[in-house]
Amino acid sequence: MDILAFGVQADEKPLIERAFAGRHPVRCLDVFLSEDTAPIAAGYEAISTSVNARLDARVLQSLAAGGTRMIAQRSTGFNNIDLETAARLGLTIARVSSYSPYSVAEFAWTLAMAVNRRIVRASNRTRDFDFRLDGLLGRDLRGRTVGVLGTGKIGEAFTRIAHGFGMYLLGWDVAHNPSCVELGMNYVDKDELFARADVISLHVPLLPSTQHIVGRAELASMKDDAILVNSSRGGLIDTDALVGELRKGRFAGVGLDVYEAEAGLFFLDKSLEAVEDDTLARLVTFPNVVVTSHQAYFTQEAVGQIVAATAENVTAYVEGRHTENVLVPAPW
Question: Which residues belong to any copy of the D-isomer specific 2-hydroxyacid dehydrogenase NAD-binding domain (predicted)?
Answer without folding.
Answer: 110-296
